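Weekly puzzle thread! Below is a chain. First person to post its structure in token form gets bragging rights.
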Amino acid sequence: MIHKVAAFYQFAALPDYRALREPLRAFCAGLALKGSVLLAQEGINGTIAGAPEAIDAFVHELAHGTLFGGRLNNLELKFSTAEAMPFGRLKVRLKKEIVTLGDEAADPTRQVGTYVEAAEWNALIAAPDTLVLDTRNAFEVAMGTFEGAVDPGIRSFGQFKDFTAKQLDPAKHRKIAMFCTGGIRCEKASAHLLARGFAEVYHLKGGILKYLEEVPEAQSRWRGECFVFDERVALGHGLRERGLREQELGHDRDE
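Winning reply:
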């Protein structure tokens, strides 16, 4: 059986996120879905897997069902497949942030950087005045990244603001293009940079996964493999499984 995998997120006001946990868990369990979903006051973030029709029903409920009442009408969604179920169980967790940065001024519901579609990304990062910044953790960067990208050398996304404070200057770095796995960390990071006075901030819409899905390998500026937070471990161009073994990596996971 081929499993369908959905990676999704949206920053949206969910003041009732605590009350949403059990109904959402029950809905997922009823569809025999497995994976991880994070709920916070600022929105939703997750990756789940199951039968294709079950994933379709889940996505429809998020975007159009009564549970969220139309508040998740702008979900960032990416679909892929897995030959074996990539999750051992279902988890629906409550968090302070759906991606942890620890900067109250970074509010993606108020302001974010300029979205760049995958087809336009190569031209942006090839420009000599663009600082290309990988916002992921060091072990993710070591597995693969874009040509010429700066590795902030962080162990978790919460350290990104410390890197920014020490290494980036709004007066010097006038044009910054950021990327991450699915786009969520870049939304939070771009809000952080804008709040600190950086004028021109761009981020790859849909993240590396969208780029690998849409950009032909012959035209790609991506080198290596993209780490994902499930048992497939890494994906390549066309979102193909790379067949790596997670236990060989020996790294902790970040949201």
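Puzzle host: Confirmed. Bonus trivia for everyone else. The CA atoms of residues 175 and 189 lie 14 Å apart.
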